[in-house]
Amino acid sequence: MPLFDRLPTTPYRAHAIVVLGRGLEADGSLPALAKERVDRAAELFAWDVAPRIIFSGRCSLNVQAEPPMTEAAAMASYAESLGLPRRALHLEEESRDTIGNAYFTMTRWLEPHEWTSIRVVTSDFHIPRTAWVFQKILGLGYDLAFSPARTELDHQSVALRAREESDILTFLTEWIGGMGDGDPLALEDLIWHQHPGYAAEPTVTREEIQARVSEIGRSHRSTDNEQHRGHRSRQSRIAEL
Fold first, then answer.
1. pLDDT tens digits for 210-221?
2. Domains recognised in the chain with CATH numbers
């Protein structure tokens, strides 16, 4: 019997494993970071952590022309190539950032099926921000745990990622930190009136978000030692919320 197509040997520990997207290559294939996340989810599935996997992601907030396949569909296709059964794979194809990952996974899958226990898989450097965002969006009614996909990054890249994550989390704290955790009315307003990825007429633009994240980055780095000066060109990167 195939590894992934068998009865569990122990009771499941969660209702679902949730895997967050991490973009697509120009040819529509998965980048290494996304594959590492799917690989980690496959390990959890093999260990009977949950009976299903939800792949979350449409495309990045910063993508102008949407790719022919969503991040979620590409991850599911890769998961099938690893031998995971199609019946266990579910797609969330609306989200364009971590806020959307949490919100649309909750509203499209968790709430309708009354799944309250999830294990979220993302890259190791992304775990602190993901944990903060998911707690803020889902609130206290969910059993949340986070499983890091290890990334093969050198020390310089790890430091760069950590600084980027710090800048973005600072921005998110400014933007939605005052919102009550899981507040349904505040969430509806955030997604459908404020957020540039989902609102028809958002109150904040992608360009304004990028400008503020860059400003935060410059402020954070103003007290850095001279040895970090080589990383300041990073401010030209678009923030991946």
1. 999 999 999 888
2. 16-236 (3.40.50.620)
